[in-house]
Please model this.
Amino acid sequence: MEHQERALAAYVESVREQPGALGVVLVGSVAQGREREDSDVDVYLVVDEERFADETAQGRFAWVERRDLDYPGSYIDIKLVSPSYLATAVEKADDPTRASFLGARVAWGVLPGLDETIARIVELPDEVWDDRVRSFVAQAHLYGGYFLRQAVERGDGFLRRHAGLHLALAAARAALAANRVMLPGPKYVSKLVSSVPTPAGFIEAWSRVVDDPDAESGAELIRILDEWVGGGLTPDEALSTFIRDNELAWLRGTVPAEFW
Model:
């Protein structure tokens, strides 16, 4: 909307002469064309490595500016990044970080190749998506076929809910990965999993696990998932994949798969 574009222009003007400033990248609802009348303006402020090191050493990674200056309720929501941050994001960023750049637009920049770098952040090769599907299916097997079953046998209400939610998340992540869709964060899971193509009965089985996880609902969701994208994963393969991507994440220098 026009008033948000004016707010963005005013912010760019306020930072372009700052020491170390290299660019402003518009992200979020305004960049994606789904803003409301009162939406804030989300940006990444790109700065050089020296300024990034100085700011983050003081714990300054994000902040808000121009509150109520440009239109009622307005503010600029700023996150700080550097060239090395963006280059690392291309290789290692989690889904929320990658998804935050979907639809991004460089509002101003003097850093060569900034557009191309941003485009690479939101792209994952097919083999990465396929590996993700396999990993999420393995998680579903362990949470639904082992932990959830144990929880029911023991009458452990906490473990039942924990295993049920992790099974539901793993199944949803597998469905999204099969459709090459990133997950911006937990609050988007229900909406996104309902919006992508899935086999008959998947959403109903998924909802039952979310609402009231038990051995039967878990087994049904896993059955549908296996028939769809399981790829013949054996119990031993599921166990090894789960151990590799979760329990040994510390050893491999990664994060557990649910946080990808």
